[in-house]
Design a protein that fits this description.
Elements (H helix, E strand, L loop, with lengths): L2 E8 L4 H14 L7 E13 L2 E10 L4 H16 L6 E7 L2 H6 L8
Antiparallel strand pairs: 1-3, 1-4, 2-3
Length: about 110
Amino acid sequence: MPYLISFAKWPSHKSAEVMKKAIESAKKFPEDKSFGEDLVSDNAIKASEDGVRSLSVLNVSKGKLEEAYLRGQAVGNLFALGIDGFEYTLEVWSTLEEAYGSIGQKPPE
């Protein structure tokens, strides 16, 4: 099944607000393992002179892509609408097997 990848960024001085919002988000959107397997769980975080960035990767369960995507949007919007300078994107990426399958092939073993 495909990967749902979330990228987010915010100004460093907004990190305390982001952490408070993360606690709110966890209560409002409790973990639901039926959406798939977290490959990068609880977000990977990187700080730089450009601010803070986070990354999460979900290997989406069969039949759950639309629901997982809509939930991802709701979570992202909770942050983006509440914290000035917070931006996020959600991207759907194919697995290697799906990419090969799209051309009628199987990946090499």
